[in-house]
Structure formats: structure tokens, C-alpha cells
Write a structure and sequence with these properties.
With 406 residues, the chain is α+β, with helices and mostly antiparallel strands. Helices cover 31% and strands 15% of the residues. Among the domains are: 3-79, no CATH class; 98-220, no CATH class. The chain is built from 13 helices and 14 strands.
Length: 406
């Protein structure tokens, strides 16, 4: 008897090799001539008849009989497809689930080998016809909202409610198969479920002659989206006067034309006087520092109030000159004299507390002791290194002793 050796899984196991058609040798049992001829079945380790082999294969009770070539021969069963296994109600649910998940989706036509996005195998729903992804897209189209609470776009334009009329037990029956993309998907659905298809109804109309509608492409969806209005930004430019001016994007994008240098050269012998209303004078009068005459004013006999700073700006004078002209101060008063104040002594910095030393663990203490021993050993080796004679000195002393004895 030959055995098929499989790879060990925790322990070494040996299973009998599967039967072949040429291994079936019918022979008559001499002790029981009334019994039909039998053959030896290696998986069952027994002599069985052809009728017993057929019964075991059709009952699907033993693991060794499932998919046996000899059992299919005796039961007159040809090789079955996954669709046949899926629709065979005599099989257990595990075999039917394996056959169902090995098929492709009738809508996207993807299976476990072509759908690279999934980490595990494909899972088909609705009687093993469509995948979970297509089921979710169909549910979003029915609800009118996707997972982001937006309107579905890709599949909403092609999925339509569909029903089929089938013949079962000599009677016509209408079956709702959900939503499809056209008659081709409806026929694939009927073939998957072994329906005797009679009619196809899509959106309440006969759909055998209707065209199949493909989902929208990504480029079409992007092009159909309304573009958002461009937000107008404001560019801030800072000039020497310290003030900010706001320009729009169009004005800021246009480069200013270069200004021609039309200023004539100035003769050093000529005296140049700056006009009273020039920008330099205005910038000089409007100093950023607050003047000491700010808020000071003079009231005449007729009740007219004149502020020193306003008078200085009107007559292009300094605040001190305007105060002298208005009689607010003596002419001998020199502007700019200020009391000398000493800066307060800095406060002493608070004394920081030193952090408390952390207590070392046992492992850290052993590491520190080992490091100390290594350092001590290194110092001892360095101290004794100069005391050890070299090889040359040792050889010379040996030769001296050797020849002295001779």
C-alpha cells in the first residue's frame, strides 16, 4: 500500500493516496460467492462494492469520499463547477460557502485573484452574486447618501431597480434581484442562481433590449464638480513712513514702471533750502517719541487757546521754538535737558534649590561598581606597564647569562 506524505503540521501524519480509476480491480470473493464483486479502497482501508462506493459518494459523509474520482465514476456524475456546488442543497454549508467565495462578482467581475485591494478572500452576498463593495454602493444609491453624507455620483447614474420573471415548477414567478446596470448583469445573476429566465424588467419596462450603462469615470466626476470661487487676498506693503497700505491682487501683481532720474546735480556752492511743506520736514515734526510739550497750550486774553505742538507744525518750528514764541517758556531754556535718573538696582535672583539626589536601583549600583573596578584595573595595568622588561631586554639578559656560564 502506498501513502502520500504531507508536510508536518505540529506532528507527522500520513494519509492514504487518493484512488485512481486504474486502481479499481473488481474480484469475486471465493468465501461469499453470492456477494457482488468488490475492490479495495485505499482511503477507507476496506473492500467495498461499486454500489457502496456510489452510496458513500452521494451521501457526502466521509471526508475521503468527497471529490473522489472513483466515486464520481460509479455515481455517473461528471465534474461539477462551483455554481453546481453552490446550488446543490444536499451539500453542507461549508462546501457551498467555499464554492460561492471562489466565484466572481456579477457586477464588477472581480474575484479573489483579481481584487488586489482585499487582504482576505472575496465574500459574495445576495445568494452569491455580488461582492460586499458593490452591495455597499447599491445601498448608498438607494439611500441617496454615501459614507461622507454626500450624493453618490459614480454608480447612481447606472444602477436601476430590476426584477426577473422565471419559470419554476411549471409556473411563472417574479423575483426581485435588486439593482443592476443592465440586462447583461441580470442574465449573469439568473445564470448564477440557475434560474429559468423568461423576462427581464428594468425600471418597470422590458429590459432585454436596453443597453448596459457603465459607471462614471473619475475624470467625469471631477469635471462635473463646481469649482470653488477664488478667495481674494489682500497684500500688505510697508513703506518708510511706518504706515500700511492695502492693495488688491491685481494692483500688487502689476509691476510699477521705473522712475526716471530727472534730478539735476546740485552745486555745492549753492545753498539749498528745504520747503516748509516737504515730506522730510513733516517726518521730522511727527517724531515717534512723545514730545514733552504734548498737551501744553497758551490762552490769550480774548479766550483763544493755542496748543504748542499745533503751533509748531503750522509754522514748521520745533516744539521748543514754538513754546518760546508763544511765551510758554524762557528763551534761555534749553530743550532736551532731562533729569538724570538712575536705574533701580536689579533684584537678586532667587537661589535655586539643588535637586535631591536620586536613589540608585540595585542594577544601577552594580553597574557603578563594575565601572569603578574596570577603572582601577586599567590604572594598575598602566602603572605596571613600565616595570615589565621588553622582549629585547629579556633576550639580551638571557644571552648574557648563557655566555657567562660557558
Amino acid at each position: 500500500m502506498s501513502y502520500a506524505v504531507h508536510e508536518p503540521i505540529g506532528r507527522t501524519i500520513q494519509l492514504a493516496a487518493p484512488m485512481r480509476v486504474e486502481d479499481v480491480l473488481l474480484r469475486q470473493n471465493e468465501a461469499y460467492p453470492d456477494l457482488p464483486p468488490s475492490f479495495h479502497c485505499r482511503p477507507l482501508l476496506a473492500d467495498i462494492t461499486a454500489a457502496t462506493c456510489k452510496t458513500n459518494f452521494l451521501a457526502h459523509k466521509g471526508v475521503s469520499c468527497r471529490g473522489c474520482i472513483v466515486g464520481m465514476m460509479h455515481a455517473a456524475v461528471t465534474s461539477r463547477t462551483a455554481i453546481d456546488v453552490l446550488n446543490d442543497e444536499s451539500l453542507n454549508r461549508h462546501e457551498r460557502a467555499m464554492a460561492k467565495n471562489s466565484l466572481a462578482c456579477v457586477r464588477c467581475m472581480k474575484d479573489s485573484s483579481s481584487n488586489k485591494r482585499l487582504q482576505m478572500g472575496m465574500r459574495l452576498v445576495r445568494a452569491g452574486t455580488i461582492c460586499v463593495s458593490c452591495w455597499n454602493r447599491e445601498s448608498e444609491c438607494k439611500r441617496g447618501l454615501n459614507s461622507k453624507n454626500g450624493q453618490p455620483r459614480k454608480w447612481a447614474s447606472c444602477l436601476r431597480p430590476t426584477s426577473v420573471v422565471i419559470r419554476k415548477d411549471g409556473k411563472l414567478k417574479t423575483v426581485d434581484i435588486g439593482m443592476t446596470t443592465g440586462p447583461s448583469e441580470a442574465m449573469r445573476h439568473a445564470e448564477r442562481r440557475n434560474f429559468d429566465l423568461v423576462e427581464i424588467w428594468i425600471d418597470g419596462e422590458r429590459g432585454e433590449a436596453m443597453p448596459d450603462v457603465a459607471p462614471l469615470s473619475v475624470s467625469t466626476i471631477v469635471a462635473s464638480k463646481a469649482s470653488k470661487p477664488r478667495k481674494q487676498r489682500t497684500t500688505h506693503l510697508r513703506v518708510e513712513t511706518g504706515r500700511d497700505f492695502e492693495l488688491d491682487d491685481d494692483e500688487a501683481a502689476e509691476p510699477s514702471a521705473p522712475v526716471a532720474d530727472t534730478v539735476a546735480p546740485i552745486d555745492a556752492t549753492e545753498s539749498v533750502s528745504e520747503p516748509a511743506g516737504s515730506v522730510a520736514a513733516a517726518l521730522t515734526n511727527h517724531e515717534t517719541a512723545k514730545s514733552e510739550w504734548a498737551g501744553c497750550y497758551v490762552t490769550d486774553t480774548d479766550g483763544t487757546t493755542t496748543y504748542v505742538c499745533d503751533y509748531a507744525r503750522q509754522h514748521s518750528l520745533t516744539d521748543w521754538q514754538a513754546a518760546v514764541a508763544l511765551g510758554a517758556c524762557d528763551a534761555d531754556y534749553e530743550d532736551g535737558e532731562a533729569e538724570v535718573t538712575t536705574a533701580p538696582a536689579p533684584e537678586p535672583e532667587p537661589v535655586k534649590r539643588e535637586p535631591a539626589s536620586r536613589r540608585l536601583t540595585g542594577k544601577q549600583q552594580r553597574k557603578a561598581q563594575k565601572a569603578a573596578r574596570r577603572a582601577e584595573r586599567a590604572r594598575n595595568q598602566a602603572a605596571s606597564a613600565h616595570q615589565v622588561p621588553t622582549i629585547k631586554q629579556t633576550a639580551a639578559a638571557y644571552m648574557a647569562v648563557l655566555f657567562a656560564g660557558a
